[in-house]
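ARCHIVE CARD
SHELF: 3
SLOT: left
DATA:
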Amino acid sequence: MHQKHDPDERRILKFPAVRPCEDVSPATLIEALIRVSRSIIACKTQFFSSQKRICREVIRQTEILLIFFEEIRDCGSGFSKTLNLCFSELHFALQKIRFLLLDCTRDGCRVYILMKSHFVANEFRVVVRSVGMALEVGIAQLGSLQVSREVGELVELLAKQTRKVKIETDPNDLFAMDSVRLTLDLLEHQLEPVRGAVSRVLGYLGIHTWNQCNMEVKFLEEEVINAEEDEDREICLLSSLMGFLCYCRGVIFDTLDKSEEITDRAGARELLRCLNPEDFRCPISLELMMDPVTISTGHTYDRLSIQKWLKAGHMLCPKTGEK
């Protein structure tokens, strides 16, 4: 019943949701619904680089569903065939919601998910409508379940909200998408993009370091390799975004790295000013030690100097006079 999918094997924005088998027991089905609901709610603490409002809304809806599922957990034996079908459809829809949320919080694909915002919003819209339709069928059966009036009212309200809620691309995402498209157009015509605008888009998506940018490039490279032969438009998008991110990696974050390097050099110079060069001179040769060795007395000498000192027949420490 409990389907496990390795995130490393699932391609981005592919949703291998599986419907429960027809003869699944009500108790098993409810437990599966509780598990998938909790995994969705766990995404609440993750960073959403885009689709923020939509993701928050579906998580809120799932929190209500979890309250409902946990309340009816102990009365699964009394499910009608209609109710079982309703819960099976909910389980299928919640699996898709979970996959969507995992993709929206996945590191390394933030620019790609942003540019697929219309597709992502439409997928959320379809799956939320599916939840609403399943709830409408189930509401008529609530009387057969031991559900408190408060929870019953919450479920009825949720069913109405899923019909009316507007699931659209966030205006901030649209603005960021337009900025990326403008940059792609400038790069295509071999014109220098406005670095400030590019940096704002990267900051909006939470891409702040060279390593994060490099992860985005590596992800796109993998997607190009794994793309199907009939995905020409997708390959074109992936290639364009890879060019955009390679520019960011080489220009935007190269500048940031140089700034950090200047800061590091200034710190190194400050550290050197605090050091006393005399502390690094060998007490025997009075020259800077190239190969320092600390002897049993706790004093440090240049290895070559201490060897010459011993070969000359001196058995006492030149600093303390100890043997």
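SLOT: right
DATA:
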Amino acid sequence: MTSLFDFTPADTSRYPGWPCAWSHTDRYDSSHRYTLWRVWDDNKPFMQVVGLNPSTANEDALDPTVTRVQKWGRAWGFGAFCMTNLFAFRSPHPDVMRAATDPIGQDNDHWLDAISQQAALVIAAWGNGGEFLGQAQSFVTSREGKGLPPLHCLGVTASGAPIHPLARGRYRVPDDIQPRLWMIQEPGRVARTKR
């Protein structure tokens, strides 16, 4: 298994108290974010969370999604998590992401795969927007035959998509949630979870 340190940026001097947080973005353009790490115990395994697209969180500031994910990661016994997304374009508004010239980002699929290969747990959490450009199906298909850990989720939407950590209404995710195996949707069938 690869160490967390294999994913660190070359220059960690700008991250006080490292290992604590870092991210990977396009070198000259911060409009895309590929990963966002939070580390509290580098002697424990890490989990990957795959959302829809990154919002405002970065290595210096959390957003509500990352705050919730970090609480769950600690409660579930992990030492870190890596937030990745089906689409790397940064916006708190998915409709803005969908209108972007390059919503996926040139390196996004690489980072999704690299992190998935090393994570002890992978949580699908993109909500109903993952079908855009076939990206959810592409991610699921890219994992086949690689011996990766099965995808888990926090629950599913009415259409069978893995719910987002900030889902509202009847799909609201309780604070004491435990990850569930995601039974991936097959054509004509609604996905379900298995406890």
